[in-house]
Design a protein that fits this description.
Number of strands: 7
Number of helices: 3
Order of helices and strands: HEEEEHEHEE
CATH class: Alpha Beta
Largest sheet: 7 strands, antiparallel
């Protein structure tokens, strides 16, 4: 039986996967670790019942006490925990199921799992550095807003045409499940 990390995505994911944000569950490593061969996009195993979190078409609610200001890490990642989540926080070695929306500085969307109505599953250690760092800050069931500088995303080259050179990436991410 073929399992989640070996299944080819049938959804034809826009933005993130072809652009290489993900290695496991989609595509090529970030530029700094690109070994040459792109990975085949993959999806989680089909489940008999889809939870409401899996099929959302827009982000869920924020906590009433969610901060208005971003916190900045020593690496330059900016984040706001919009919903804390009651579950454990993932490590870089975990596989996570998330909903997300990615935009550029001008607000243009380059990818969204909400648009597809299906959460994405990927290895957290196999994404751009900004995602790996950011998702470890929020608990399962939580929601985080990330502002990822180009140094933690695609560097000076970007991923044209969807992600221009030296692009800061903006994400709303809901951590549905740690697998």
């Amino acid at each position: 039986m073929v399992t989640g990390l070996n299944r080819v995505l049938s959804a034809g994911l826009l933005g993130l996967f072809p652009l290489g944000l993900f290695v496991v569950a989609g595509c090529v490593p970030p530029p700094s670790s690109n070994t040459g061969a792109p990975r085949v996009p993959t999806a989680a195993p089909a489940e008999s019942a889809t939870s409401p979190e899996d099929s959302r078409t827009k982000p869920g609610p924020d906590d009433p006490d969610a901060p208005a200001e971003f916190t900045e890490t020593a690496t330059g990642l900016k984040y706001r925990i919009l919903r804390k989540g009651a579950g454990r926080k993932p490590t870089a070695a975990d596989t996570v199921k998330c909903h997300y929306r990615g935009t550029l500085d001008d607000g243009s969307e380059f990818d969204s799992s909400y648009s597809r109505g299906e959460a994405a599953t990927f290895g957290l250690g196999q994404v751009i550095a900004g995602w790996t760092q950011g998702l470890q800050l929020v608990g399962e069931g939580g929601k985080i807003e990330l502002e990822i500088p180009y140094q933690l995303a695609y560097g000076e080259a970007g991923r044209p045409p969807s992600i221009p050179p030296k692009s800061t990436l903006h994400f709303i991410v809901e951590l549905v499940k740690i697998q």
